Amino acid sequence: MELFLLVLLLILVIVGNNRFSAVKEAVNLQNTVIGQLRAELLAFQKELRNQPAPTAEQPAEPIIEQTPVIVVVPPALPIVEEEVEPIFMAEAVSAPEIEPEPVQAFISQPVVQPEPKPSFFQRFLAENPDLEKFIGENLINKIGIAILVAGIGYFVKFAIDQHWINEIGRVLIGVLAGGLLLGVAHRIRNTFAAFSSVLVAGGLSVLYFTIAIAFSDYKIFSQTAAFLIMVIITGFAVLLSITYNRPALAVMSLIGGFATPFMVSTGHGNYVVLFSYLLVLDCGMLVLAYFKKWNIVHFVAYGFTVLLYSLWLSTEVQESKQAPYGGALLFASLFYVVFMAMNLIYNLKHQAKFSAIEIGLLLSNTAFYYAAGMLILAHMNQGAYQGLFTAGLAVVNFGIATSLYRREVVDRTLIYLLIGLVVTFASLTIPVQLDGNFITMFWALEAVLLLWLAQRSGLILLSTAAVIVMSLMLISLIMDWSALYLDSATPPLHIVFNKAFVTSVVAIISLITTQRLLWKQPSPFQFWLGQLSVSAYQYIIGYLTVIISYFAGVCELDYQATHAFGFEANRTILLGTYNLFFAVGLLLFARRYALRSWLIQASILGIILLFLYVTFFDSATHDLLGAYFQGDETSLIGFPVHYLSLLCVIGLLFLLHTIQPQLEPLPSFISRFWPWFMGFVLVYIASSELYSHVVYFKFSGVDLPTTATQKLDVADRYYALLEQINKVGLPILWGICAFVFMYVGLTRRNRQFRIISLSLFALTLLKLFFHDLEGISEGGRIAAFISLGALLLIISFMYQRIKRLILDTDAPKPTSEEL
């Protein structure tokens, strides 16, 4: 009874829809006629407004009184009043002075403003001027089918709750409801095309879920029978999509086809059966792609296949010790071939050009296949076949490119793309075989290839893909550094010639090549959220090149130094030298190309590294000498290396001093602060080198201690020597430095250097009298006093002889006779 009521309800809906179709057509015709009449009325009103106003005939009587004529002008112009002589009205009508043309000459033309870009709602109204038609023909049917399916579901649920329908009856209701929807859709396919498509989608949904429930909940069908029935439903949906020429039906059949294995799954799946079914489904889409150019169907099939295969690969292969690697590689290769053919078959058949989306699909298909293959082969014979696999992909793409190159009608963009893939895989073969970090290198080379292809083919989407792939490469590179340099389980890496550093070099080459290609980039990079200008991307690539170059070197050096010397002073000295050397190179590069922004940033970096040298890096040299001569350190390699850091510090000071004119205008406090900073660094370097060399030459001829007593004796002598250097050597050295500053300040007429000299003298004297006299040896006391006294006398003599320079810093430089 309930089934009869349901069928009767559906028949009434269909009959009612057919009965009211005539009324609907009459209403649409009436709306059309009203729209035409409205347009004619508007056109007539516009024509009336454009006609000149008629001139009324007046009697030719003389005007006795003078009447002022007021000429109305726009608000921006003054109002002009003119007196008109008494004339006859007939003459006034024909007189040229009162014609409107001269008045119009004073009226400024309005500036035409560009029309604002319409909003989404405005565009929607423009595309659908008749909202009633849109709602009645396009929106209501979709809402109606959803409500109808929900109503059927609620009715069936109510009947089940009341025990009116048993399990077989429930399945029959679902099958009949789905079949009835399909039958109605077929009946009205020509009259109501859009509505029939919606009915087909609803009918297929009902059939899919009915069979799934019959298998999973009611156990009416076996797994094989349910699977075959759903395959038949999918094939029927594909046939309907081709027959009706509607992509929406093909998408619906695809979704149902990919959902079928999960609907009939028991939790103990066989990957061979699953991927064989997916392969058959994709081959059906390949046949469909031969006849129809439906990109949405391609996207859905490709997306679901990649998703399902990736999930299986990450769970069943990566996390299993006895995974079917051979079968995984076989199905990956078959999927690659099917989607490669799906990308090419229609355009080659119709000699059509490849769009940016199609080229992106081809590239992503190759990238996913290569990533899956390398992941699988990494578990087979310790990755011995990865290089062969890479070379094989190069050969395959070369064969396709060669066969297509002979056909002149083939799109040249596809040929360029295949040639680029050949070059990419051929370039990766040797690094991959040598355990290179192939994924990162592949993306690095692919980013350059995409940008080059975009400039050759003019496809904007390829250049956008180049930016995305470059971002992926950088993320992958950081992950490689973390996995190779920080993972303790990784076998020790060779110096420089290891997969981590080689990957870094390839990434740097990719960034430099991209920077050179950007000089030829004609258009900005388009994204969904906006666009990226070429100049901005050039700045980003420039900064990334510097950053990646720095971290590539520092990670490699830190890794090798840590494995060789541990976290001790030698490692600190090596890292400090590298940082200073990098800052000098960056500053030289910025000065050569006269880039003010780069000069400012490199100068700030140089000052920061000078500060780090004073506070952190240089102290490691003293720690190394103390640890080595006390028997706690086995290597002294850091001491000769520290001379390189010393040269870099001097080079930084010289470069920072010479590039100041290129940085003008600078804030005044920087000009006042810089001489003090430079003087402080120079005095610190001299003092530090005095400590280091006195200790080195004092203990270099002594045997290293081996016992605890010997180490204690060396430690006592070491700290006693440091005390003598502090109380005797430093006052003498600081006095010499103060004398040099005074000499420079006098000869170059620089008041700041003279003040620095006097300040250093004052500090030296305070240190000498309040700290150094206690505990100093007699010889040290004599040497310190004599040297400082002599230096002070010389300074006093220089001040007396060059008094004019001291009193007036702007006076001309004295001659040699005056000196």
UniProtKB/TrEMBL annotation:
Transmembrane segments: 139-156, 168-186, 192-213, 225-244, 271-291, 296-313, 325-347, 359-378, 384-405, 414-432, 438-454, 459-479, 491-513, 534-552, 572-590, 597-616, 636-657, 669-687, 728-746, 753-770, 782-799
Domain of life: Bacteria
Keyword Membrane in annotation: yes
UniProt KW keywords: Membrane, Transmembrane, Transmembrane helix
The UniProt record lists the keyword Iron-sulfur: no
One Pfam family it belongs to: DUF2339
UniProt xrefs under PANTHER family: BLL2549 PROTEIN
Protein name: DUF2339 domain-containing protein
Phylogenetic placement of the source organism: Bacteria, Pseudomonadati, Bacteroidota, Cytophagia, Cytophagales
